[in-house]
Amino acid sequence: LPGVLFVVILDQITTYSLVQENLIVGAFVYYFVGLVVSRFGSLVIEPILKLVGFLRFAEYCDFVSAAKKDSKIDELSETNNMYRTFVSMLFLLLTAKGYEIISYKYPPLATHSIGFLLLVLLLMFLFAYRKQTSYIRRRIKLGK
Predict the structure, then answer these.
(1) Cα 53 from chain centroid (whole Å)
(2) Are 125 and 39 in contact (CB under 8 A)?
(3) CB atoms within 10 A of CB 110
(4) How far is 39 from 41, CA to CA, in rounded Å?
(5) CB atoms within 10 A of CB 45
(6) Rounded-to-5 percentages of helix, strand, coil across the chain
(7) E strands along the chain, which residues?
(8) 3-state secondary structure of 138
């Protein structure tokens, strides 16, 4: 859902288009875009909101033990992550629009767009991998 929404809104508010004619290719592209939007929310939006005091999380070990006792917590957490992903999506759409405006004023910036995007994606997925590995390690520790 976030990938499809992002692509449709991006197409409407910018000159950039990720809309795919081929439905099979489109499914993969939209899934990947949704994954990027979600990971950006987890790695960038969430830490910033925690840093400025907008969010406070329970300790992870408390979350795990409470989720074992109350199955509703997992559902609430999933809804919470969906809201974070929508915040991320809107932020990235605003960023894309801002980048479009700036690249019109500074055309040389646009010549490096793909390289910059690939570098950002590489860094983001490296940090996502590290974060996921950290969760796994903490779950293993809690299970001992």
Answers:
(1) 20
(2) yes
(3) 13
(4) 5
(5) 20
(6) 85, 0, 15
(7) none
(8) helix
Q: Which residue has the tokens 């801002």?
A: 98
- pTM for the whole thing? 0.82
d(CA 3, CA 97): 17
Q: Give CB contacts under 8 A, 24+ apart, made by 120-125.
A: 121/36, 124/36, 124/39, 124/40, 124/43, 125/39
Q: Span 45-62, mean pLDDT?
A: 88
Task: Determine whether 9 is exposed, middle or buried from the number of CB atoms within 10 Å of its CB (0-12, 13-18, 19+).
Answer: middle
Residue type, 105: K
Distance CA 21, CA 33 (A): 16
The mean pLDDT of the chain is 89
